[in-house]
Specification:
- There is one protein chain.
- This protein has twelve helices and 22 strands.
- It has helices at 23-30, 39-51, 70-78, 88-96, 113-122, 132-145, 183-192, 213-231, 258-272, 282-285, 318-322, 410-414; strands at residues 2-6, 9-12, 15-18, 21-22, 34-38, 58-63, 82-85, 104-106, 126-129, 149-156, 178-179, 196-202, 238-240, 275-278, 289-300, 305-309, 328-330, 338-344, 353-361, 368-371, 392-397, 400-405.
- The N and C termini lie far apart (61 Å).
- The mean pLDDT is 96.
- The structure holds ligand LLP.
């Protein structure tokens, strides 16, 4: 009997499986905490996204910040993905994974000259410029290298994406991008410069957005700017609508189909005659990965039941950082009594909570549980806090598991330190 949680993540005869492999076996073989990704799920989510835009010229640039493991980037690159990057490090990763530089976009509010130089030398598709000062820095660096930098301005369309304030980026008060009102003037200034060439326009309104109407609103506003630019002879070839499409963190709810997003964007962008650029991260990787962790101790207080597990906020920061919900299931399915419990990590912080007051089946010490939807902003946000080596990452395809990042060891913790 099969019960699907997410594509390629399911119970079969009471055992949790990822792409055909037993979660419990993976935990035994590779240890916990362990990030496990399903290659088939990654491919599924990429295709689900990319095919929704097949009626227009487009590039799906995977947001590397959501999951930057080289093998993950390679899997997506093989399907034709480009990369949305925010640092020299992310460009380096994308190139190492074999992604075509002509499919790499580079955003970020604080690009340093050395990062700009790196992007120029590698010949990336475009720089998404976030301020006037940055425009001049790019021009200067490009001049020094004898190059012309292809640019887009990241325009803040001032729409409310109705998501968590920490991941909402399109409001007037946000630090990102240039304002709607100054955009055209900045393009004029850019056009005057010799070593930059405006070729695109960009916006990104936030993350984990499930009400797609905000994308439509932003697109309409930004399309107005494009029309104005075309009328003054500034040709915009790339319309970059950013990332942000949300996922279902609860397997019992359906995801918003990407087609709903595509319906908001395609008619408007088609009229402009631009190539669409998209920057999904979470949508591709989020539900393609889980974090396996072991219950170390069970602690009962009068009013509370705690499961202390071997993954902490250093391994998965989202619950403590945003109070984000991640569904939790045991590796061996259980029927029977549910009890409210807190699933907490071993870190010395009160906020090290992975799930609070969660109805869960009764768990035993040593039991393996899976924290779902951990494929995006999971490992990439992990740290060594409390001097904990980072977990291993494993990818599974058709019943076979491969390590794609080794578990860190004690030596790794101090390898860059100098004892004086
Ligand atoms: N493009 C730009 C310019 C971005 O800033 C981001 C995300 C993306 C694309 C990808 O967004 P996505 O499709 O993944 O929603 N750490 C937070 C999310 C921060 C997102 C930052 N920017 C979290 O764990 O929820």
């Amino acid at each position: 009997m099969k019960e699907e949680l997410f594509p390629f993540i399911y119970y079969e005869n009471g055992k949790l499986k990822i792409d055909g492999v037993d979660a419990e076996k993976l935990a035994k073989e590779f240890g916990t905490p362990l990030y496990v990704y399903s290659q088939s799920a990654l491919e599924y989510w990429f295709r689900e996204f990319d095919s929704a835009f097949s009626s227009v010229e487009h590039i799906t640039c995977f947001a590397v910040k959501s999951n930057s493991n080289l093998s993950i980037l390679k899997v997506l690159g093989n399907l034709g993905a480009g990369a949305d990057t925010v640092s020299k490090g992310e460009i380096f990763r994308a190139l190492n994974a074999g992604i075509d530089p002509k499919k790499i976009v580079f955003a970020g509010v604080g690009k340093r000259p050395d990062e700009i130089e790196y992007g120029l030398e590698k010949g990336i598709l475009m720089f998404n410029v976030e301020s006037e000062s940055e425009l001049y820095t790019i021009n200067r660096v490009a001049e020094r290298l004898g190059k012309v930098a292809p640019i887009a301005f990241r325009v803040n369309p001032e729409v409310d994406a109705k998501t968590h304030p920490y991941i909402s980026t399109g409001l007037k008060t946000s630090k990102f991008g240039v304002t709607f009102d100054e955009a055209v003037e900045l393009y004029r200034k850019a056009k005057e410069l010799r070593n930059v060439e405006p070729i695109g326009i960009h916006f990104h309104i936030g993350s984990q957005i499930t009400d797609v109407s905000a994308f439509g609103e932003a697109t309409r506003k930004v399309a107005e700017i494009v029309r104005e630019l075309h009328s003054i002879g500034i040709e915009i070839k790339y319309f970059d609508a950013g990332g942000g499409l949300g996922i279902n963190y609860n397997p019992s709810e359906p995801p918003v189909p990407t087609k709903a997003l595509a319906d908001q964007l395609i008619p408007l962008v088609k009229k402009l005659g631009c190539t669409l650029v998209l920057e999904p991260g979470r949508r591709i990787a989020g539900n393609a990965g889980v974090l396996l962790t072991k219950v170390i101790y069970k602690k009962e207080r009068e009013e509370k039941l705690f499961y202390i597990v071997d993954a902490g906020m250093n391994d998965l920061a989202r619950p403590s950082l945003y109070k984000a919900y991640h569904h939790i299931v045991p590796a061996i399915k259980k029927e029977g009594e549910l009890r409210k419990a807190d699933v907490v990590g071993p870190i010395c912080e009160t906020g090290d909570v992975l799930a609070e007051d969660r109805e869960l089946p009764l768990l035993r010490e040593e039991e393996i549980i899976a924290i779902l939807s951990a494929g995006a902003y999971g490992f990439t946000m992990a740290s060594n806090y409390n001097s904990r080596p980072k977990p291993a990452e494993v990818i599974v395809k058709d019943g076979k598991a491969k390590v794609i990042r080794q578990r860190e060891n004690l030596g790794d913790l101090i390898s860059r330190e100098v004892l004086f």
